[in-house]
Structure formats: structure tokens, C-alpha cells
Design a protein that fits this description.
Number of domains: 2
Structural class: alpha/beta
Number of helices: 14
Mean pLDDT: 90
Strand content: 5-15%
Helix content: 40-55%
Largest sheet: 6 strands, parallel
Order of helices and strands: EHEHEHEHHHHHHEHHHHEH
Length: 321
């Protein structure tokens, strides 16, 4: 039986994934499935760099604005929803274009990862977030080192969401996260083409800095203030995202606005490094360079469209097959 084709556009923050995904959908009759763990939240538009309606250019985007920021949401839930969307698009002969920088979401689709959860997971998660609030990310990471040193080595201490996820697994599963998954690329249920975008590092950092300045100009501080007034607390996962946690600290008097903005830029640059490290481990990704203005160097764009055309016409064999 022929596998459903799914095209994924991946890469670091600010490299231009969303615009390319829309271009692909316009050219090949597709719809976008967001693979961003923060764009799922309603009311978090500026700090997550969601495309505006105009920027979406008439292309339907799925899995945006689907839960409130006070809600818990897991990769398992996202995968279920993404699978349903892919199935629906396939029935309508539309190309699913999964686009985002959340590496685990992408791997959930490409490798058909399974994420069984126990009923007590939410309570455990809440306890670790309380621990984080009291003791900080370094102490949290030390807790992971005690129970799952391999996962601790793989995860940076500031990546608190995944550190807590690994701690949950250590408590609820028979094996720690590092032993429970084989992270080597494997064949999933879909015929996947992985398109990766990258940019010269200093050029990408320049785009990151400009993006943060634009977020501030668009009203990032007001957006965070509105979330706090609506009952979203710093303990909720949503407000631990880069861009939000720093503004919360400013609004709570822990730093100045200028210091918060510089922290956002610095933390985003560090996040970019972690994203690239994650995606570079997957040999299936076909990489394409972009210039700082979003254009492609000579020959890159032609190579990109040829590869996509060959893939959709069934002329290309994937490396893992």
C-alpha cells in the first residue's frame, strides 16, 4: 500500500520556515500543519511569531491556537491531532506540509513515536514545575542527572520542558527516557521528505535580533501582561517559553525592559544552537541555505523545487528506505 506523502520544513528559529511552507502549499496544493510547541496556545501570537492572516496568504494552517495557555498539552496529544489532520488532507488530495522547529514533534511524525502516558503524569509534572520555581533550572537538571544521566547529558539545563519530561518518564516508566527510545532515524507510517533550512550563523543571529525588536514594537510586553491578567501564571508551560519568561521577570520587577530584551535575544540564539544540534543528527534532512534577506544563493532554490517535484512524482528514494 502506498504511504501518504508528508513534506516537513524544519530548521532553527527565524530562518524562514513558515514562508517557505506557504510557498510550497501554494505551488503544490497543500495545507500547513504547525509543529511548534508554543504556537498551539491561544493569545500567544507576537512572542511565538505566528503568521498573520495576511502572511498565511490564504493557506489553511492547522494546530495553531488550539488550547488555552493554562492547559497542559503533550507531544502525544499533538501527534494524535497531526495524524488525524494528515489523514484528512490525504482524503482531499492535499499535500500535508508539517512546519516547525520543535524537533520532538517532527520526529513523532517521521518516526511514528509512541508516547504512552499514565494518569498520574500531570501531578508529577506539576510537582517538578513547583520544584523548578523554588530551586531553579540547575537544581532541576541535577535531579535528572541522578536518575537518568544519559538524558541529562543530552539536555541543556535551560531546556526545562524536556528535562521535566525526562523526569516524568523516570518516575512513571519501567526505563528512563534515554533507554526507552531508540533515537536513530527509522521508517514511520509516512513517505516523508525533510527539507531543512539553515543560514550563516551571524546572519541568522542578526535575523533573531531583528525579530525580537519587531516583537517588542508589536506589543510583546502588552501581550504578556494580558496573559497574566487572564490568570496564566509563570508556572504554566506557556509562560516558560523564550520571550515570555523574560518579560514576566521584567513585569515582576526582577529586571529592566532593556535587560529583558537582551535576555530574549541571547536565549533565542542559544535555542537556535540547540535546534541545529537536534536536526543535524538526522541524516534524512536535505539542507538548503538561505541568505539573511530570505532569498536563496544561486542554484539553491532551483535545487529545492526540483527535489520537491521529484519526490511528489515518486522519482526519489528516501535515504532510510
Amino acid at each position: 500500500m502506498t504511504k501518504q506523502r508528508v513534506l516537513c520544513v524544519v530548521g532553527p528559529t527565524a530562518v524562514g520556515k513558515s514562508d517557505l511552507a506557504v510557498d510550497i502549499c501554494l505551488k503544490y496544493h497543500g495545507e500547513v500543519i504547525s509543529a511548534d510547541s508554543m504556537q498551539i496556545y491561544r493569545g500567544m501570537d507576537i512572542g511565538t511569531a505566528k503568521l498573520t492572516t495576511a502572511e498565511q496568504r490564504g493557506i489553511t494552517h492547522h494546530l495553531l491556537d488550539i488550547v488555552d495557555p493554562t492547559s497542559s498539552y503533550t507531544v502525544a496529544t499533538w501527534k494524535d491531532e497531526a495524524d488525524k489532520t494528515i489523514k484528512s488532507l490525504g482524503k482531499r488530495h492535499l499535500l500535508p506540509v508539517v512546519c516547525g522547529g520543535t524537533g520532538l514533534y517532527i520526529r513523532a511524525i517521521t518516526d511514528d513515536l509512541q508516547f504512552p502516558e499514565r494518569p498520574d503524569t500531570l501531578q508529577i509534572r506539576a510537582r517538578w514545575y513547583t520544584f523548578l520555581e523554588t530551586h531553579g533550572p540547575h537544581a532541576l537538571h541535577e535531579q535528572l542527572e541522578r536518575v537518568d544521566p544519559l538524558s541529562a547529558k543530552r539536555l541543556h539545563e535551560n531546556d526545562v520542558k524536556r528535562v521535566i519530561r525526562a523526569l516524568e518518564v523516570a518516575e512513571t516508566a519501567d526505563k528512563p527516557l534515554s533507554e526507552g527510545y531508540d533515537w536513530s532515524p527509522k521508517t514511520g507510517r509516512y513517505d516523508v521528505l525533510l527539507i531543512g533550512l539553515f543560514m550563516e550563523r551571524e546572519a541568522l543571529y542578526e535575523r533573531v535580533n531583528r525579530r525580537v525588536d519587531r516583537m517588542v514594537d508589536l506589543g510583546l510586553f502588552a501581550e504578556v501582561r494580558k496573559l497574566l491578567e487572564a490568570g496564566v501564571t509563570p508556572e504554566h508551560t506557556a509562560l516558560q517559553a523564550i520571550g515570555y519568561k523574560e518579560v514576566v521577570q521584567c513585569l515582576q520587577g526582577e529586571c529592566s525592559a532593556e535587560e529583558a530584551i537582551e535576555s530574549i535575544k541571547r536565549n533565542t540564539r542559544r535555542f537556535v544552537k540547540r535546534q541545529l544540534s537536534w536536526f543535524r543528527r538526522d541524516p534524512r534532512i536535505e539542507w538548503f541555505e538561505r541568505n539573511v534577506d530570505g532569498t536563496f544563493p544561486p542554484g539553491e532554490e532551483d535545487r529545492l523545487w526540483r527535489m520537491i517535484a521529484d519526490y511528489l512524482e515518486g522519482k526519489r528514494t528516501m535515504p532510510h528506505e
